[in-house]
């Protein structure tokens, strides 16, 4: 949901930068020719 003048603040703990990147990066599907949702987007 998007509302003007609102901000979301996410607080959490993750063990490594690699794990963080894995959680938020958008994987690309060459067959579909599009980006897939990251685990973060699925949780959001």
List the topology elements.
Blueprint: H1 17-24, E1 28-29, E2 34-35, H2 39-43
Name a few traits of the molecule:
44 residues; alpha+beta; two-stranded antiparallel ribbon; 2 helices; 2 strands; 30% helix
Helix content: 25-40%
Shape: flat
Structural class: alpha+beta
Give me the strand/helix succession.
HEEH
Number of helices: 2
* Proportion of strand residues: 5-15%
How does the major sheet shape up? 2 strands, antiparallel
> What's the gyration radius in Å?
13 Å
Short précis:
The protein has 44 residues and is an alpha+beta fold.
Structural features, described:
The chain has 44 residues and is α+β, with helices and mostly antiparallel strands. 30% of the residues lie in helices and 9% in strands. It is flat and about 35 Å long. The chain starts with 16 loop residues before the first helix and ends with a helix. The relative contact order is 0.16.
């Amino acid at each position: 949901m998007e509302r003007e003048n609102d901000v979301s603040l996410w607080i959490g703990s993750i063990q490594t930068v690699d794990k963080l990147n894995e959680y938020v990066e958008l994987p690309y599907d060459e067959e579909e020719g599009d980006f897939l949702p990251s685990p973060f987007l699925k949780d959001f």
